[in-house]
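Colleagues,

For the teaching module next term, I've prepared a clean inverse folding example: a structure given as tokens, and then the sequence designed for it. I'd like students to try predicting residues themselves before seeing the answer, so please don't circulate the second half yet.
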């Protein structure tokens, strides 16, 4: 097949590229340049240059043509503006989910048109076709599985998506990188926003929203315990970075009008039932709601699932009851639903 492969300069996309080559496909690699000059100005360096160098060296070794596609304007409009407005509203956004939907499997599809049969990435996920429907299946590596970030894709997007390393574990991918002697074989994984691997989220927020001193207040007593630099640096369920003694303290709510962060050290007390939440903007990968409602749910990326019961409401929202209490149910994050190892779709936590 004729395949457009998205490369990031990391080990996963490099191994994916080599496997596609070995399978005999006609492959062109694409590096999406979404760095904004704005962000470069406060990172003090040109972090995407190193990524691009790795991508170029890998493509050279594998004899694959590489094209650099600038998408800064689109990324600013669709991802950065969304993240900033969500944070400003006191919610906790997930840029990676939107980046996949809008950029990698959205605008990129539009840019390449019908020239390629498939778009391949280094995601840990699998696509299965069953009864003319495309299903998103989890990776055998529960820690690296990335179906959480792909839960907003639709049938059209999934029909063209290809995940060459989706059936492998990270350990196996690292082994293959060594076996193939790829330039990325010992490169560490980046932990950042989408392709913005080098920027810490707090730095990103500081650049766009600055700092504003406010009070940290004990939820139960109203007593002031300390100060913070802006409610937008704190998420519900957060424990680290509060700088308070006598804890552990958890962020339990925020008053965005008065810039107050409320904390509690009785977060796990029985009267604080944190096993129910509402979801909105529901999206189903199959284009229709599931026919069963005893499901599994992830409320953040990682290996942890909860058993859950989903109740759909006439107004388009859903009520979710999970099998255990969770201290980090944060408005704005995505709840992603599963039936066994099939990812069904997602909703935004309200």
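(Answer key — instructors only)
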């Amino acid at each position: 097949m004729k395949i457009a492969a998205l490369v990031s300069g990391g080990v996963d996309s490099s191994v994916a590229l080599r496997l596609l080559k070995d399978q005999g496909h006609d492959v062109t690699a694409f590096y999406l340049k979404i760095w904004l000059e704005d962000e470069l100005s406060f990172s003090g360096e040109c972090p995407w240059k190193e990524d691009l160098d790795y991508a170029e060296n890998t493509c050279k070794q594998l004899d694959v043509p590489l094209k650099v596609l600038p998408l800064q304007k689109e990324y600013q409009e669709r991802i950065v503006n969304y993240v900033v407005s969500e944070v400003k509203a006191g919610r906790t956004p997930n840029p990676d989910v939107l980046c996949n939907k809008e950029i990698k499997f959205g605008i990129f599809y539009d840019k390449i048109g019908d020239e390629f049969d498939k778009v391949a990435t280094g995601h840990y996920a699998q696509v299965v076709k069953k009864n003319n429907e495309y299903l998103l299946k989890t990776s055998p590596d529960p820690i690296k599985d990335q179906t959480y970030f792909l839960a907003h894709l639709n049938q059209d997007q999934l029909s063209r998506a290809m995940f060459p390393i989706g059936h492998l574990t990270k350990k196996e991918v690292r082994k293959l990188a060594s076996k193939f002697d790829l330039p990325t074989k010992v490169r560490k994984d980046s932990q950042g926003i989408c392709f913005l691997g080098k920027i810490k989220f707090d730095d990103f927020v500081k650049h766009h929203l600055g700092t504003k001193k406010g009070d940290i207040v004990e939820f139960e007593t109203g007593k002031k315990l300390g100060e913070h630099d802006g409610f937008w640096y704190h998420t519900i369920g957060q424990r680290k970075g509060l700088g308070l003694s006598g804890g552990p303290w958890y962020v339990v709510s925020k008053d965005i009008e008065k810039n107050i962060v409320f904390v509690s050290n009785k977060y796990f007390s029985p009267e604080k039932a944190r096993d129910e939440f509402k979801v909105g903007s529901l999206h189903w990968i199959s284009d229709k709601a599931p026919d069963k409602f005893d499901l599994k749910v992830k409320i953040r990326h990682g290996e942890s699932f909860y058993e859950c019961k989903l109740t759909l409401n006439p107004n388009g929202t859903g009520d979710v009851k999970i099998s255990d209490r969770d201290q980090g149910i944060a408005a704005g994050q995505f709840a992603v639903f599963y039936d066994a190892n099939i990812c069904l779709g997602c909703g935004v936590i309200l």
